[in-house]
Amino acid sequence: MTAAATHPVVAELIERHQPTLTRAVEATTARDYWSPYPEFPKAYGETGQADGQAAFDALLGSVFTLDGQPADGELVSGESSPYGIELGVSYPHADVEALIGALELARPGWAAAGPTVRAAVCLEILARINARSHEFAHAVMHTTGQAYGMAFQAGGPHAQDRGLEAVAYAFIEQTRLPERASWTKPQGKRDPLTMTKEFVPVPVGLALLIGCNTFPTWNGYPGLFASLATGNPVLVKPHPRATLPLALTVQVAREVLAEAGFDPNLVCLAAEHEGSTIAQTLAVRPEVKLIDYTGSTQFGDWLEANAQQALVYTEKAGVNSVVIDSTDNYRGMLANLAFSLSLYSGQMCTTPQNLLIPRTGVRTDEGGKSYDEVVTDLAAAIEGLLSDDARAAAILGAVVNPGVLGRTVRAAGGEYGELALAPRVVTSPEFPAATVRTPALVKVDADKPDDRAAFLGECFGPVSFVVAVESAEAAVELLGRTVREQGAMTAAGYTVDDAVEAALVATCLDAGVSLSLNLTGGVYANQTAAFSDLHGTGANPAANAAYCDGAFVASRFRTVEVRRHS
Amino acid sequence: MTAAATHPVVAELIERHQPTLTRAVEATTARDYWSPYPEFPKAYGETGQADGQAAFDALLGSVFTLDGQPADGELVSGESSPYGIELGVSYPHADVEALIGALELARPGWAAAGPTVRAAVCLEILARINARSHEFAHAVMHTTGQAYGMAFQAGGPHAQDRGLEAVAYAFIEQTRLPERASWTKPQGKRDPLTMTKEFVPVPVGLALLIGCNTFPTWNGYPGLFASLATGNPVLVKPHPRATLPLALTVQVAREVLAEAGFDPNLVCLAAEHEGSTIAQTLAVRPEVKLIDYTGSTQFGDWLEANAQQALVYTEKAGVNSVVIDSTDNYRGMLANLAFSLSLYSGQMCTTPQNLLIPRTGVRTDEGGKSYDEVVTDLAAAIEGLLSDDARAAAILGAVVNPGVLGRTVRAAGGEYGELALAPRVVTSPEFPAATVRTPALVKVDADKPDDRAAFLGECFGPVSFVVAVESAEAAVELLGRTVREQGAMTAAGYTVDDAVEAALVATCLDAGVSLSLNLTGGVYANQTAAFSDLHGTGANPAANAAYCDGAFVASRFRTVEVRRHS
């Protein structure tokens, strides 16, 4: 136990959160369903939703407070809700030197606190964020365009799950060696050699979290909590269009750290205007030893090449494919795919983009279906799912930014290929100003060079390609090649043929992408569950890291040994 | 269990080595003394030493055989024993394309074998190497200059320990997730969602081991076995002056792999003449995803900067310091330091270089000792330890290469500063042609700029500096600064003062170097024991990796998940 553990607030936190930590540690090896954070909005009290809305409304137009964080007097604003409401939140700005200096000053106390104290403090941060899940849901909704239900789950409890998972892994990694061990080496007839050895996990330095536009909390929490729980101060640089969810996170973290007797500057916010190059500046600072990044391949590659003083964990772009060979549940397959393509307007890094369908057709429980029949039926399934505007809006959310909107416009104009399903403008009853579009389905042929140019690159957003391929084998081969060349966060397949399944599994293992097979119910290729599914593999160009495994955490600290004669 | 596990040879290996693997896995968390490989030469049978000598003699002047490895007909030779005997071994040469191609071809079968099979095969390789420890000892002795006793232990059982440790960590890491798990998520009144999930560890690609001149096996085995046990084919590029020990290792590995039904080209040798740039060529090949390197800072830095497609694990140069503040066992301290500085002529990356002694003197159980008295007494302790040529040769070994010899010549000439102890030419009774030198002790002052230039850089070999410093506090501060700026593999201290000890521990934790405190017996600052001590920390410029921890192994494979409805 370290000195920090005797602080009364800390001692209470350790005791209070021990059962959750123990359970989380067990969950990492069991891989069954588990979460301490309920995903049903009603679990957060009768007035939870109204309270969250009120708290969010109170933030609108305000100056965000981060007491004690360095500030240069400037204010940063500019977030605009994809739902058309005015956010008007402005954030205190600080220069790089001041932020780095504050984090460095805060570093030693947290480094000395040890794994148990740090885990307890992190769990308290997560518990307080959890209690405010409705407020976070509004913040996520109005920065990312996610519909409220998704913003609540993915931006709230599911993001908290991923944060907790990182804390659990950090605790496991840092406590693999005993704090103290005796070493006795026999020396034949002479007295044995005896030593006492202490093993101390030491953090590596400052951590930088570079947030993304679409999932600021879900993609941000793994790195944030992995770094913090291993003792590294964290500078949070949010996406300029999705600052609020991470600003709230930083605010809660600072509040808990201060109460526990630590310097709140262990977690600072680097809010910036769109177009700022602060991320490039911070990424190559010698003090910065860890970087977590989610976003474009271009900047991810830049970070990997240039931030040589740091360990860089990236999640970049990819092209996700689905092989459609055969199924014993045709309706279930169509419904599952329709939902996968529609959820959050395909703006997930895990959304399937290319549906690979043999020209010879697909065997189903409803008989053989030609390529065209499958395409027509899938288009109809999507249309059916999204026929009602209110329901459509609740699934689609809103288009997050002009880049995505541009692609739906190009798809609608036939630029990517023949349309099997044209995107439709949806009017959200609740937010008439929101930009909501249904997915486009584009027909392409794997053997036509022009078509290949269209579907073999990432086309992020509500545009998917129904790709005619020679055979199931060609589909599997194309999936593998796409993963190796473009990267992929997910792969999926539908087949009742053992040989096709075996080829698909072998290809996914070799190309390094995780595979969802024959999903026809309430689990979707684009969703992963913390403590059970890994998000990404780190084994293909889409990402060099996975949430969460030992590799994601093990290098964020080092072990220093002190030994002496017993 | 994978298909490979049913191969009769493999099945037998799994059964035979299971107890060792289980015990090794336990040892990684207990950190007590443990080894399955006896370190006493006599444990290897009555005729062990003679058999080893005969096997080594049979290699002299021979063409080394690596059946089935690509070869272009050229032969590589050029090793010369620091003991003056002619080695004359020549090794088959192959071009880079052929080697990479052979490793790639071998890759899939080993990738599919799974962690259990790979661990068993690796343990068999180690067991066969262990049985030939005397032969390896000769090979290590006559390439590195280590004395036979040290070449036997450090090049044999202790190196095997480090290899086994890596295999144990690899097994632990790859089996943290279950092979298969059920996932059941309650859905209120509806049926729960249920999934079956498989987790498959997949290797990342080809591994390159770049060996060093002084400890080809001890520094080579951790990376070799960590990569191989996680499923990656390994190309072994030995130091041109220390090829034989790794060539024998490759030969044994290939033999075991072939017997177990695998392609022996999973482990290949890239023997090269001195001056070859093959390491640079190999290091940036796109197929190479893992690099383990021990050697100069210059090339280590080059690898870290240029081999961007690979994970690079380096152990480079450093400057190790000892703070001498006070002791309750003056004679024990002197004897311990004398041995530390003399062992293998200071040619260990862990040998103390700078002994930091307050100008105000050192409190001891024999009363206060002035700086000059400590220096004189230490010089006398070294002279006493090495007064007999035979005994001296058995401790010092031989000077490994002309670079090291040059430094002892410069030290003898007073180039580094005033000599407190001049290096002495020792004639080895057994090998009169061997180049053997006792350590030089150079007096310097921490506050004189010219002196600082001499001792603040690495001076690899039998040259140590007795550095006069203002106070114990100044010594601790200088140790910390040296670690941060130059890197260090070890730190040591002598003090009976609680405040000095606390400052020393705090400084070592912050600078990221492991500390040996008050060593006065048979444990030396330059020695670490596998399964108990970590070698290096990865937290300072001397190395980015440690033998062995989770971080050394966790990123050598990735996990791919396959999930489906139950």
Tell me briefly what this model is.
2 copies of one chain form a homodimer. Chain A is of the alpha/beta class.
Poorly predicted parts of chain A: none
Oligomer: homodimer
The gross shape of chain A turns out to be: globular
Average predicted local confidence, pLDDT of chain A: 97
Number of helices of chain A: 18
Helix content of chain A: 40-55%
Any idea what the CATH superfamily of the largest domain in chain A is called?
Aldehyde Dehydrogenase, Chain A, domain 1
The amount of beta strand of chain A, in percent, is: 15-25%
Strand runs of chain A, count: 19
What's the N-to-C terminus distance of chain A? 21 Å
* CATH architectural type of the largest domain in chain A: 3-Layer(aba) Sandwich
Q: Which structural class fits the helix and strand makeup of chain A?
A: alpha/beta
Q: What is the element layout, followed by pairings?
A:
2 copies of one chain form a homodimer.
Chain A: H1 8-30, H2 48-59, E1 75-76, E2 91-92, H3 96-131, H4 133-144, H5 148-155, H6 157-174, E3 180-187, E4 190-203, E5 206-210, H7 221-229, E6 234-237, H8 244-259, E7 267-269, H9 278-283, E8 288-294, H10 297-306, E9 311-315, E10 321-324, H11 330-342, E11 354-358, H12 371-385, H13 389-396, H14 402-412, E12 418-421, E13 425-426, E14 436-437, E15 440-445, H15 449-455, E16 463-469, H16 472-486, E17 491-494, H17 498-511, E18 515-517, H18 550-554, E19 557-565
Parallel strand pairs in A: 5-6, 5-8, 6-7, 8-9, 10-11, 10-17, 11-16, 15-16, 17-18
Antiparallel strand pairs in A: 1-2, 3-4, 4-19, 12-15, 13-14
Helix pairs in contact in A: 1-3, 1-6, 2-4, 3-6, 3-8, 4-5, 5-6, 6-7, 11-12, 16-17
